[in-house]
């Protein structure tokens, strides 16, 4: 018994062997070679011509190979597979090239010194070793934290109203949330500018910027939370209610914990939506070159604002600073997302 | 007296076992046949082999009564004039084909019916003589006294086994004094303690389907309900888990009244003291016949009941 057991080796018969890969590899080599040949003899020129020919040839080759080896159905399958891969490449290639560009240009002036200094006593022409963007990092931290603190409860409670309470105005509220998510960001800035600053007579401040971003963040948080809450099975609601809980206790103890990681995603998406916003901040925070630790008073900067301002100045060092700002913003967002993911899955939901 | 009781219960269990586990059943069958001259295992034998606890409502508590209950979804009349008594300390099974309103009826008993937006009803549901639908009644208190176990096991995924059992108390904001003691007693009564006592801090989703369902039963028991409603609690479970749950139901019935909806007539015969037969002939569902389980399965008064329990339709 034990001997037969040891004689049996685990294997994976479904794994693709090198022999099976060979035709595909030949097909790929043929595709690339044919593309070079076509570009060489035809009037198609440049990278665009090459890419278009490559796509065309890849579809033709994959279809032909499958048709010859198998049948028409296999050929259709190959065609769609190649199309799906191409679509994925269209998404990934630009994204990677953007990240590559940011890292290449932004990491030039990167040093930890930039997190200890502001631009108050540094002129735009100064070398990158002088000055820093601490004021912008602080500004973004204040503004985005403020917006998150306001938009998260409002957004999630709105979603709860639509999904859990199913109140009389649920349809209307959903409609407005959807309409709000299409509002151009500068309109949010203008709204706060008109109401908070002109009507109520407040000056530029971090809080005003936070309000503007809140307006943009609420619809994202609310819509994503709504989708997440809809995924919670009806069974769980009924189980909670059948145990003699009020609706509020069921939502607080059963629904929200079950949806927690999804709700964290909703907040992350909301932060992602607003952290790079420049237009509403132009109208509400005023911009600054010095550190301002008081969010309720005085002009404030933010990383997108820092990028915008340095790009406008336009000399070589300030453009480098703009790239640096983009780089720092990207790293900050990455850190926030990683932390949020970590904490949302740290306890529970280990199904 | 006590010895006869003992043998009776043993035989009950063997009967029930044999219904569930085919192979073992043959051995048991021979033994019980020798003792009891029960020749075959028809439903009526199963029903009459078990000594039913009939007709002695526990003093002071009349339990639950439905009086002339009708139900609608929108304009569709789904239940017509259902009147039933559920005595304390007994198990009542509701049988009948799909779509005849059994589930709707038990959801009416603990006011879960009202969560369906188009639902409406007429009639009275009396718990200890008071209508649960009377204006001003605190519905959460009703549901604390009338617990429910659902068809699909639904433990709370974000809670551990321990938290799941005690969740009812926390949800209803009742103070827990001796949590560990309560935890153990609930899990024991649900027949789950031995399987989970070393893993109380694991998540409920890690258990098997049958264990999850018993966890849900334990969760319902923690709030100490007077009535436990079970909506096809075994329909998603394997025979072994079904047997465990049926044993649990028998043990629980000493201290509360249990209403169990089932499509499995064997199950109704095995666990219940009373059986109600529901039927809908295209129109609203009606209670065709209610009686002791033995009566329904051996000598039903209505032809349609006999057709159904003997498997001639449905």
Please give the CATH class of the largest domain in chain A.
Mainly Alpha
Helix content of chain B: 40-55%
**Distance between termini of chain A?**
36 Å
Radius of gyration of chain B: 20 Å
Give the overall shape of chain B.
Answer: globular
CATH topology grouping of the largest domain in chain B: Rossmann fold
For this structure, what is the CATH homologous superfamily of the largest domain in chain B? Answer: P-loop containing nucleotide triphosphate hydrolases
By CATH, the architecture of the largest domain in chain A is named Orthogonal Bundle
What's the assembly state of these chains?
heterodimer
The biggest beta sheet of chain A is recorded as: none
- Please, what is the average pLDDT of chain A? 88
Characterize the biggest β-sheet of chain B: 6 strands, mixed
DSSP strand (E) fraction of chain B? 15-25%
Largest interface: A-B, 24 and 30 residues
Secondary-structure blueprint of this entry?
The complex is a heterodimer of chains A (351) and B (314).
Chain A lengths: L1 H6 L10 H24 L4 H24 L2 H35 L27 H32 L4 H12 L3 H15 L6 H25 L3 H9 L4 H12 L1 H16 L3 H6 L18 H11 L2 H31 L5
Chain B lengths: L1 H19 L1 H15 L6 H7 L14 E10 L2 E11 L4 E5 L6 H8 L9 E9 L2 E2 L7 H7 E4 L11 H11 L7 H11 L3 H4 L12 H14 L4 E5 L7 H14 L4 E5 L3 H7 L2 E6 L6 E7 H6 L4 H7 L5
Parallel strand pairs in B: 3-8, 3-9, 6-7, 7-8
Antiparallel strand pairs in B: 1-2, 1-4, 4-5, 9-10
Descriptive account of the structure:
The complex is a heterodimer of chains A (351) and B (314). Chain A has helices at residues 2-7, 18-41, 46-69, 72-106, 134-165, 170-181, 185-199, 206-230, 234-242, 247-258, 260-275, 279-284, 303-313, 316-346. With 351 residues, chain A is an all-alpha fold. Chain A has two domains: 17-106, no CATH class; 134-346, MetI-like (MetI-like fold, Orthogonal Bundle), CATH 1.10.3720.10. Chain A is globular. Helix content of chain B is 41%, strand content 20%. Chain B is built from 13 helices and ten strands. Chain B has helices spanning 2-20, 22-36, 43-49, 102-109, 139-145, 161-171, 179-189, 193-196, 209-222, 239-252, 265-271, 293-298, 303-309, and strands spanning 64-73, 76-86, 91-95, 119-127, 130-131, 146-149, 227-231, 257-261, 274-279, 286-292. A six-stranded mixed sheet of chain B has the order 6-7-8-3-9-10, with helices on both faces. A four-stranded antiparallel sheet of chain B has the order 2-1-4-5, with helices on one face. Chain B is globular, with a radius of gyration of 20 Å. At the A-B interface, α9 and α10 of A face α5, α6 and α9 of B.
